[in-house]
Design a protein that fits this description.
The protein contains 13 helices and 12 strands. The protein is an alpha/beta fold. Helix 1 crosses helix 2 and helix 10 packs across helix 11.
Length: 336
């Protein structure tokens, strides 16, 4: 049977209140008594009831992490690393998946408010429109929020931690153009998704700076930014009769779909067409044709998101937090 505070008190010859103070490091207990209490607790394998302690302090000890898609390896990695840093900071982490749905985001926010989480890290859905007003409900309920991997539209007061999305796409597209690829197709998701719009601006700026006019560019907009959607786009590329010499994809999942589909259609990659991804997820190097891509430091995003969130929980005003923008890195492999 697990030992309780009142049992330790009887063994130490003190009151349960004194035991509680000693185990919480209070200076109201003299050093000799504190050491005796801690020794008895260790000897009998006492495990503190952190849930009860937090309840007494009116704290949940929990953070929320909202992501749009658990099947995307990028978000799965973000979950793992964020959980590690949350635990290090002394918090549990509740994972919620919006499945790229505004309706689910609304329900999730309601659940988080009801659960009295102490703070939330969110990745908004990759669909047209804004999630900013939805997640602002959390701040209205005095729950701090950090937007991770992207930012909300201009005008949002929710701080963010992200890599330079425009800069990363500009760098990988410029690399292709310098290598003589002048007939690119850009494969992306729906327009009016802020994250995707930022990346698209990097691609268009790189094309302009390379002397390639917008009329010479092909942009394929898909309803979703996943493997299956990219396979459909790749069929269009294959059916075009070799009109393109480069495919620039907004993430690695889509790039893998293009690589696999075009390879099955008889394309030699990269001789016939160069293909790039974005994110540098775990399979990018292990792909049948290893992917040239843009590395986002997910570990740093997770670490900085938790650090910023804990500062907000500690009282930092959101309008003083600002956005944290981390660098990206071009990773060149055999797909180009």
């Amino acid at each position: 049977m697990a030992i309780r505070i009142k049992d330790i008190a009887k063994l130490a010859g003190v009151s349960p209140a004194t035991v509680s103070l000693a185990l919480n490091g209070s200076e109201l207990v003299n050093e000799d008594t504190r050491k005796r209490i801690i020794s008895i607790a260790h000897e009998h394998g006492y495990i503190p009831n952190t849930y009860a302690r937090r309840l007494a302090m009116r704290r949940s000890g929990m953070l929320g992490l909202v992501i749009p898609d658990i099947e995307n390896v990028y978000y799965a990695s973000l979950v793992r690393m964020t959980n590690n840093y949350a635990q290090t900071a002394g918090y549990g982490l509740s994972i919620l998946i919006s499945d790229n749905s505004r309706e689910l985001e609304e329900k999730i926010v309601t659940e988080l408010i009801s659960a009295r989480v102490e703070g939330v890290i969110c990745v908004p859905a990759n669909i047209p429109g804004s999630s900013g007003e939805i997640f602002a409900r959390l701040t209205d309920a005095t729950i701090p929020v950090v937007c991770a991997t992207t930012r909300f539209e201009p005008g949002s007061f929710i701080p963010s931690v992200m890599c330079g999305l425009r800069e990363g796409m500009y760098e990988v597209a410029s690399y292709l153009f310098r290598r003589g690829r002048r007939r690119p197709v850009y494969i992306t998701g729906p327009s009016d998704v802020y994250t995707l719009d930022i990346r698209r601006s990097g691609f268009l700026d790189a094309a302009r700076d390379a002397g390639i006019g917008e009329s010479e560019l092909k942009i394929i907009e898909l309803p979703e930014v996943n493997y299956a959607a990219a396979c459909v786009a790749a069929q269009q590329i294959a059916d075009s009769g070799g009109n393109f010499d480069a495919a620039v994809c907004v993430n690695d999942m889509m790039a893998l779909g293009v690589v696999n589909t075009l390879s099955r259609r008889g394309f030699d990659i990269p001789r016939d067409i160069a293909i790039t991804g974005y994110d540098d997820v775990i399979f990018a190097e292990a792909s049948p044709t290893p992917l040239t891509t843009v590395r986002q430091d997910i570990d740093s995003i997770a670490r900085e998101s938790i650090a910023l969130l804990t500062r907000l929980i500690g009282g930092l005003p959101p309008d003083e937090a600002g956005d944290i923008v981390l660098p990206t890195q071009l990773v060149i492999r055999q797909s180009t």
